[in-house]
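Sample log: Glycogen synthase.
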Amino acid sequence: MSKNKNLKILFVASEAGPFAKVGGLGEVMFSLPRSLRRLGHDARVMIPRYLSVDQEKFNLKTVMEGLKVPTGGEYEPLVCNVKMFDSVEADGNSPAPTYFLENEEYYEKRANVYGYSDDSIRWALLCRGALEFVKASEWKPDIIVASDWQTGLIPNYLHTTYKEDPDLKNIAVLFSIHNIGFQASFDHHFITEMDYDSGQAEIPSIYDPKFLKLNFMRRGVMYADVINTVSPTYAQEITTPEYGEMLQDLLSERRGILYGILNGIDYEEWNPATDDNLNFKFNHKALGERDKNKSVLQRKFNLPEDEHAFLIGIVSRLVDQKGFDMLMTCGDSLLNNFNIQLIVIGTGDGKYITFFEELRKKHPNKLGIHLSFDAILPRLLYGGADAILIPSKYEPCGLTQMEAMRYGAVPIVRKTGGLADSVQDFDLEKNTGDGFVFENYDNYALLGTIIRAMEINKHKVIWKKMQERAMKKDFSWDRSAGEYAKILNRAIESHIKKIEG
């Protein structure tokens, strides 16, 4: 196959913006297909049509009715329809053409994307429904991209049940891991030996009690032509016991086809020169304007307007994964002993919410908090804070550091996953780097790095150069899409070799 061939690509996922978006996966399913279309590829998306999908707003049209999706064994098939959002713009700025699998029982009556007791059945229906749709459709992709555990059965079905199917046998499959911590509808840490799924057994009927024990993530990894995850470092980390979530041996076996590609951010959406939420817009050549946003931010959070205070922001889910147990140990002494102001925006575990609320009472002139969801405040923080703190235990990719750097907030991060790939540690002698990076997961390393950043911040000429380097970095989806095109071609070539034997 020619490396320059324009590919037909079908992304299958549980969510995709702007139709049904819960988290980072929904953002990727909106941005990556659009960027691939800008490169000339025919990228399309398929998700379920949940009750919450606005059919009128998106002008969905029926493209297939009465699609019978086998359920396995002697059971009757489930009947589905398929609707479609057809992209109105050809320039890659509209969402990609998107198919919606309809089924009254499993999707149309459900307002939420996740959180149902029969989620395994709902995702299996999506996997097999997507394949049956492709069988019946005139449009046939060269490759299917299955995203996360919810679509892990697609590679499995393609390489077993549909292996000899004339409509499907030539289609390659890429399995994309966004977070290996979630592998099935159950917690894989607590599976008994009797219920362990090696991935070798045939997929039972979706109504068989054994079906509920399947590890969809394991099966996706086992049967895919190529596997990718959302950063090069995370791709290495998940082959180790520390990060592999009990799949490290299988991933090590398959590491020859395991790739890591950093996610991107939308550079039009995240642009400090055009962001109307900012009081003072700016670019890397006008950082003086940015300085004015710091005062606005301090006023907004009832902190003293002190240009010399080192203002650190946190925008995060407040959960163990994000490393806040370290801050619980050293946060008080940090605010006690240094001219540091901290602003925290996020929701999450009660213990962290309580911690920040109590810390705020103790240091009302040092700490500002907003412990509920807000779409605008992070932008104000990125556009006015000196630094953004991301001390994660693990971080498959992370978008916060990219958004912050785009707005000139210097990241202070732990060296893990996508943080390691996107932030270069500052080197005073060489005057290189665009952030501050620490390796050990302990509060001394965290504290030392924050103090190092604070001391460098006093040297404004050096700091401004660092901000400029951060703002000029390319984290666009167009960069990511070029990398994806390469591994999609590899998956197709690998699949052709397999079927040609």
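Observation: The longest strand covers residues 61-69.
Observation: The domain at 287-474 is CATH 3.40.50.2000 (Rossmann fold).
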